[in-house]
Amino acid sequence: MKKKVLAFVLALALVFALATPALAARTFTDVRGSRWSYKPIEYAYAQGYMNGIGDGAFDPTGTVVRAMVAQVLWKKAGQPAAAITNPFEDVSDGAWFAEAVVWCKGESIINGATETTFAPVRPVIRQDVCVMVYNYVKAMEDISLDKATDAEMAQFSDAGSVASYAEDAVRWAVKSKFMSGSDGKLNPNDTASREQLAQFFLNLDSILGLDTNIDLPVDDEPEPPPFEDAVRISQNAAGVYVNGLAFNPQMGYNSQVVLGQDRFYADESAGNMVNRSGAYIAVNGAFFQSGSTLETDATVISNGQLIRNDNWGSPAKSTFVIDKSGRASIQHMTIMETFRKFRNGEDVTIVDPLVAETNIPLPFTNDWGANRRYTRAFGATVPGHVHTAVVVDENGVVTAKYTDADNVPIPEKGYVLCKRSLMSQWDTFLPDTEVGDTIVHNVEYKGSTTQEIATALSCGPTIVKNGAAYGNNDTYAEEKFGSVKRGNLARMAIGVRADGTVVIINATCDLPQLGQAMAALGCQDAMNLDGGASTLLYHNGGYIASPGRKMTNLLVFTRAQ
Q1: For residues 460 and 341, what is the distance between their CA atoms, to the nearest angstrom?
Q2: 173 phi and psi angles, rounded to 5 deg
Q3: What is the spatial distance between Cα 72 and Cα 31, in angstroms, rounded to a whole number?
């Protein structure tokens, strides 16, 4: 018999759904009908399992935490009274999830992180969702608990990374089709997302023999528009003569950041970079050092992956962003990379109290003296000497550890985490890591209006804010551009109008004049890009501005197929 389920979500961010709404148009602004999770999300919403996060959004890639899973399982069981008293110091009796957590503990469905703590806001990895639901099914439902054979598990290349404590649950999940994985992988150590949770509970209802067919809402947004070419700009704007382009990246474009020779610390002729990327529009990007280092001072996100994080300090750098719907914006975001460490299925993350609060994932930054993450975009080896480094494969498993080492090898897939020196006596995250541990990596774009970022490149300083020219020597210095060159120089700028149109210009002027020109061209927000000999703007086979040197990074737009 189907038990009524109320939605669960985090307090202050999420609300409970008490009734099934009538469905007509697409329910959530950030979940298109073409998205793989469209039916699971609409099903979970229609059944009252999950709701949005406000302002019409669902946040499909948002992180699932332990309290969420406890709450939905408790609701699915009919909100029974707990058989035990609350044993957890970090679960106050008045918390929205308190009854659910205590019931789950009493039924041995979800145990505490320790005897006295539950860690309600700790992210949940996929194999742990399997464990929690498997425990629920054993306690509350009368269905088969058959498990996948070794042969059935062998279809997944990462089956060996399932923790021993989760093996029975994952084998049941595979056999029952509760979890099917993707691209031949189970991804057991990946943090579960909200859209994955919606799919999990649609799967569970199907396993329980419930009718999971629903009348899907109509996706009332039109099909993506046909390609629309950029409009050439060649005019006087606020007393400055500018050359450039204006175009809407949602009108038939894809975006990416292209690195010289596809890695940092390297340069390449602009012509090669344009040709091999298939660029329709290309513009020079962030500042880089000349000479032997060729260090690129920028955050780089491409194809939805954070490649380099330079937005970890305060204030946050201006960052040009294209979200996964193709909409452009200028964001002032701090990027928080956090890592958790698991050993034999147990969270063994230990946080330096001088760095972060207890039970908060340890932050890693690109600061040379702190912790740093290196992928193959940085080359074949980690530059310089490290105190400690661990090699993490594509499944999050630590495969090697180095101490007091030079030139630590970076894997083709995965990454290296390293420290140049210890910061305190509690700085034990990497020194105490062992081969075989699992590292879970999460990224949060704090201060951004979108978490679904496809492409991003930071530079600056900010030259237009809220539709008006912005900035002076003080603001440039605040944004860490105290050494930016003054006077009339060849400059590049990129900005975004309120309707999402991107404006890119080349002009010879000073920075305040550049901001005035971009504001006059209708930009709501804009930022400076590299200039001088790096000045480059390419469009459909020709250069509006030609570079005077090799480049380390370009922002590229190709025509969508």
Answers
A1: 35
A2: -60, -40
A3: 22
**Parallel, antiparallel, or unpaired for β 462-465 and 231-237?**
unpaired
Name 283's Cβ contacts closer than 8 Å, sequence gap at least 6.
492, 494, 504, 529, 536, 537, 538, 554, 555
End-to-end CA separation in angstroms for the chain = 48
The span from the CA of 323 to the CA of 255, in Å, is: 10
Specify whether the backbone of 81 is left (phi greater than 0), alpha (psi in -120 to 50) or beta.
beta
As a whole number of angstroms, the distance between CA 330 and CA 526 comes to 7
Helix (H) / strand (E) containing 542:
strand 542-545
Beta strands in 407-497 (DSSP E): 415-419, 438-446, 453-459, 462-465, 468-469, 489-497
Q: What is the mean pLDDT of each run of 10 residues along the chain (561 residues)?
A: 30 30 64 88 86 83 89 88 93 91 96 91 93 96 92 90 94 95 87 92 93 84 79 96 97 95 93 96 92 83 90 82 94 86 76 39 43 87 90 90 95 90 77 89 86 93 96 88 80 97 97 97 97 95 94 96 70
Torsion-angle region of 229 (φ positive above 0: left; ψ -120 to 50: alpha; else: beta): beta
CB 337 within 8 A of CB 329: no
d(CA 102, CA 89): 12
Q: What is the pTM of this model?
A: 0.65
**DSSP secondary structure, 328-388, as one string:** EEEEE-EEEEEEEEEETTEE-----TTTS-TTSPEEE---TTSEEEE-GGG-SB-SSEEEE
CB atoms within 10 A of CB 128: 26
Structure tokens at 406: 């030079």
Beta bridge partners of 233: 244
Dist CA 443 CA 366 (whole Å): 14
Asked if residues 422 and 385 have their Cβ atoms less than 8 Å apart, the reply is no
Q: CB–CB of 347/439 below 8 Å?
A: no
Q: Which DSSP symbol is given to 156?
A: S
217: Cβ contacts below 8 Å, ≥ 6 apart: 23, 24, 25, 26, 27, 42
In DSSP notation, 177-227 reads TS---BTTB--TTSBPBHHHHHHHHHHHHHHTT------PPB--SPPPPPP
